[in-house]
Amino acid sequence: MKLIVLGCYSATPRTFNNPTSQVLEIKGNLFLIDCGEGTQVQLRKNKIKFARIKNIFISHLHGDHFYGLIGLISTFRLLGREADLTIYGPKGIKQAIILQLKLSESWTNFKLRFVELESDEPELIYEDDKVTVTTIPLTHRVYTNGFLFQEKPNERNLNIKAVEDFDISRAYYQKIKNGDDITLEDGRVIPNEQLTFDPTSPKSYAFCSDTVYKVDNVPQLNGVTVLYHESTFLDEHQHLTDKTKHSTAKEAAKIAVKADVKTLILGHYSTRYGSIDVFKDEAQTIFKNVELAEDGKVFEF
Amino acid sequence: MKLIVLGCYSATPRTFNNPTSQVLEIKGNLFLIDCGEGTQVQLRKNKIKFARIKNIFISHLHGDHFYGLIGLISTFRLLGREADLTIYGPKGIKQAIILQLKLSESWTNFKLRFVELESDEPELIYEDDKVTVTTIPLTHRVYTNGFLFQEKPNERNLNIKAVEDFDISRAYYQKIKNGDDITLEDGRVIPNEQLTFDPTSPKSYAFCSDTVYKVDNVPQLNGVTVLYHESTFLDEHQHLTDKTKHSTAKEAAKIAVKADVKTLILGHYSTRYGSIDVFKDEAQTIFKNVELAEDGKVFEF
Question: What angle do CA B74, B75, B77 make, to 5 degrees?
Answer without folding.
Answer: 65
